[in-house]
Design brief:
Length: 163
Amino acid sequence: MSDHKVRFYGYVERPYGQVSALLREQPLELLQRATHSASTRARALVANLRVNVGAVEVAVDVRTHIDRVAEEEGVAGMSPITSLEFGWEAARAPGFFPLMKARLSAWPLTSTETQLQLEGDYAPPLGPLGVAIDTVVGHRIAEASVERLLQDVIEQIRREPRG
């Protein structure tokens, strides 16, 4: 069974230095605020999907952990990149839900705009049954959750006081 990949891009009208500092200095707080917001919105998504998948509960509280924060200097005309490697799993009964490993990267586009990329790998749980569920609906839920998480991270960055 191979991992499944997801990737989304977004932009925030904040200088790279501010975004980079936030990712380096408050990574867990930023993700926790965003996952709380994403979790709330995911429940609305689930309500719409129940029509198609029955009464399966797919929105759960998650436990987020930071694996690594790195800052790479730009070389040979390339932009610097700040990246945050992290993961999350269901807070209760994690064996029934996908485990996600992700990387949030940020780099400057202009002096006032920063691009963000959230890419991740997840493995469906429950062996062959989980793969079948993922094929039918699970991958769409994973993609929607990751895209929503990126949008919520961007919103959290926008809410930060300008420094």
